Amino acid sequence: MPDNTRRARDESFWRTFADRYDVQPGPINLENGYFGRMSRTVVEEYQRNIELINRSNSVYVRQRFEASDGLKIRAQVAELIDVPAEAVALTRNASDGLQSLIRNYNRLQPGEQVLICDLEYDTVKGAMRWLARHRGVEVIEIEHRHPASFDSLLTTYRDAFERYPRLRLMALTHVTHRTGLVMPVQAIAAAAREHGVDVILDGAHALGQLEFDLEELGIAFAAYNLHKWVGAPLTLGFLYIAPERLSDIDPDMGEMHFPITDIRARTPYSTPNIPALLTLPLVLEEHWAMGGAAAKGMRLNYLRNLWVRAAHELPGIDVLTPDDPRLYCGITSMRFAAHNDQQLMVEQLLNDYNLFTVMRSGAACGPCIRITPGLTTTAADMAQLITALTELS
């Protein structure tokens, strides 16, 4: 097993991987959280698969993909989170999976309550509010105080469970897209179980940069992206349902293409992006060759800490993501304390320093600038960010 801590600092080692990606000349991309790059070899494989499906059309799809090749790929995806293939259904992305889980959760009764927080993805918030309109339940919305800590996050949820005894379902985001905060999922899920509350986990940003065990976390329902940190083409994700909890999620809108005992009935039946799916075996091979989530996560954390440690010493810079190793990953947010409009500062970082970042709002802590290094990011890129923050602070 390679020493990932040592490797994370080895610029020449990571350059060998970065050289496998084609990067367009232009700004330094510090917004790698939107979606990840495919390696050059993955792009070439994807193109070959597009041509294959275009040539063979439904002959290959009906004769081989649906009967065997697609099932093998699904099993490989399940291995990413170390669960049986029967616990996984492929989707276009995490949002599709989360919407399916939320709208088809069948254990709610009118008058009961569901829980969301300020850090949830807007699509998840919308889906939970949809439940309120169509199932007669009440949506409870909580905010996390800033700065967050392991204990404060857990206490906020414990207080909500005590205050709202009719809670039956909650959304929980593993890595929040607004600030990069990593939620203490295991502790929160354990507290939820004590109060009879089910958790639907948004793992969109977690897969590929965090190591986790769903059984250890105590999670029965989750959805993930394959196009962020795993390196797959866009339009690929999946949902997970613990086999013993499958009956708690109804077939999607009466889906009948699969038996009621098949998790694939929990998603809309449609023609998937077959060329992208056929590319997944190579994507997963490269993911594991790079060291998987352990190596990727360590590298991203190292790059994150380069600029965060410097930013803590600068006046006028607020780093909004905690430094507790349990609560951060490569994604971290900050703000210029003396400026009301963070979008103007995003534009100044781009125009004056050639640094591409993104502004995020919606968190109780206020608007922020999200900084997300990627696998092609270098320590020199982080040094350029530090220079920009120093001068702008």
TrEMBL record:
It comes from Pseudomonas moorei. Residues 71-368 form the Aminotransferase class V domain. This is Selenocysteine lyase/Cysteine desulfurase. Pfam families: Aminotran_5 (PF00266). PANTHER family: BLR1280 PROTEIN (PTHR43092:SF6), L-CYSTEINE DESULFHYDRASE (PTHR43092). It comes from the Bacteria. The lineage of its organism: Bacteria, Pseudomonadati, Pseudomonadota, Gammaproteobacteria, Pseudomonadales. Keywords: Lyase, Pyridoxal phosphate. GO terms for molecular function: lyase activity.
